[in-house]
Design brief:
This protein has 6 helices and 30 strands. The chain is mainly beta and 425 residues long. The protein is elongated and about 125 Å long. Strands 1, 2, 3, 4, 5, 6, 7, 10, 11, 13 and 14 form an 11-stranded mixed beta sheet that branches. A 4-stranded antiparallel beta sheet has the order 8-16-19-22, with no helix packed on it. Strands 25-30-28-27 form a 4-stranded antiparallel beta sheet, with no helix packed on it. The termini are far apart.
Amino acid sequence: MANDKKKIGFSLRKLIYNDRALIICSVIAAIIIWVVTSMNLSPETTKKITVPVSVDFSGTVAEQLGIEYYGNPSITTEVTVSCKKYLAKDIDENDLTASLQTNTIIAAGYYSVPIIVSAADDADFTIVSYFPSSAQGYYDVAQEISLPVELNFVNKNIAADGYVVGETTLNQSTVQVKGAAAYVSTVERVAADINLESGLTESQIITLEPSAFDSNGVKVENVSIVIPDGEASLSATVPILKVQNLAPAVSFTAGPSNPESFLDIDYSVRSVQVGALESAQLSELNLGNISFNNINLGKNTFDFKATEVNGVTVLDGTDKITVTVTVPDGFSSKNISINKNDIVADTNEYSVTVNSISQNRITVIGESSELENIDKSALSFTLVPADDEEKISENTKTCRLVVSVNGNRCWVLGNYTASVTVKAK
């Protein structure tokens, strides 16, 4: 056991007299000495670093007054630092901070404000100089106004022969003009140019670049135009419409089918020249609906505004179109008595009690031979909320009483209402 301990014991004397071990120790010691000496005796050098300048009004008089900076949005200053040469490559803009000395701003105006540059707390370098040492800019209270966008067609003749330009629409009709109050207050209007080639036969969607102008038509600089409601840009849809001559027509509701087969329908004009999308493939100009509830015996007239028809632009100046609906002599009217108990309108969710009805007699018009056999059993009733509600609820107090009649050429004349009480089941 004693012999084993001697074999594994450390001997400094043997290590000193071992040439290989001595060489290795000498090299390691030399490297350590060289590194320490290089760090302590490394020559000084300088380095230039471009640093962004921040603008912060926190805790200043300007913040209390609502003053903001209006100038170069990307202010920078070139900072010269002095450091050990071996450290230079690791120093960058993150080791420096630069900001405007905004506590010097106490009123709106144009100022040259000093720039303050400082190094990080643990910096191994010193700041020698920086340039520029100040930044010029305008300081003012922020203002925002909302204005409509005017459109200016640079090329006045963009539609091909047989086509016209419809009403141009914008994805946003108004924009916000923002900036310094001194500039925003001079803005009178916002306009955007539309520049399209000639000979177009299809509608166009284009992105616009609106600009602000003063009362003299001079473009106002130093303001920004913001599109509201989260839109990425302002765009215009320019419809290119095909010129067509269309005969007027109406649709009939709340009554028998195929009214053209037994009613005399006459229009005050034979046709109207309009512009419409070619893809719509219109064969007639549908003016709107006529309810049988409004058609009485004899002659009935209904006026429609041609200019209010969706999807078309009237080109020939036609404004009002009168539709005359004549019920032939073979038709008559009949009054049928009803009461509130005839109306059952319970829903899955609510119990509906009819308190009263606007009239106790329903007027039915129809072909005389058919009307003889019509009685209360031929009537059906539906309650519909009268106050723009989507469906009946506990808040419903008044309903439209929709009455329909089981007859080929019969319909109900007039409009009826019912007072109701609605309770949850």
